[in-house]
């Protein structure tokens, strides 16, 4: 074995990192505070660059088997008028492959299956980490993949950067019918999105200012174009997920520490979901870190971590910054100014 690594967190970034390190010959352990894998339903958008990273990790075919292409998405007014198109067709032309959407459970299952195929030990669920120092002392490499409230980040990087609320609340759910209308509808201070997720179902998400109940959420979108009211009326509220939107602020000056610790995914750069790049950046982090470690070997770990930080930090933080600014645009109450800006984009 090249060395021993312990990954804290069994989400997308943690599992993908473990796969990459295992492929590089490392002995890998995974600790996860949750009692079981994340199974709540939502759709991840996987950009072609992240698809290529999954190919290199050996998970690309499993992704293709369960994902659906995302095409023909528009930005609309609450009345249903098209203001612009999301640049999905342009992305597909340039990359030669479409943006894909896959549900969280399917992606987690694919990553878990690949770990098993590589002979890696299964993640240890229900294992909260309190003493990061012991992990650092007992392993060659420690990966903080434990989300926006990362204990690894706090222990090794301090408390200056942390979760910051941005003043809006997100609701997500899955409707048991295909809406046939995809993209986002932008109103004053709120927006609603719909994407495919699998045959016969529609992934939806709504961003509103501090909505506290299901009834209040429906009220925010009363009178909006079809099928938004139908989605909210016909989706079981007990399956809806509500969370206060947060991002990591201020941006970290580095993703690595002490030649033995690296952060990936939300632990390093948690962002608002407006660009749909959270899972993508996590996958790109994981593949880049594992590649750098493999290229430098176990004796060159400090150099590997510096190479990883140089490749990923500024790129990921640019995406996070752009996503936060897009959130401001999408939730602004200055809708005339926003409409004027959107007219600069193609509507078809």
Automatic annotation (TrEMBL):
Keywords: Monooxygenase, Oxidoreductase. One of its GO terms (molecular function) is FAD binding. The keyword Nucleotide-binding does not apply. This is 2-polyprenyl-6-methoxyphenol hydroxylase. InterPro entries: FAD-bd (IPR002938), FAD-dep_Monooxygenase_BioMet (IPR050493), FAD/NAD-bd_sf (IPR036188). The keyword Hydrolase does not apply. Residues 5-128, 140-320 form the FAD-binding domain. Gene3D superfamilies: FAD/NAD(P)-binding domain.
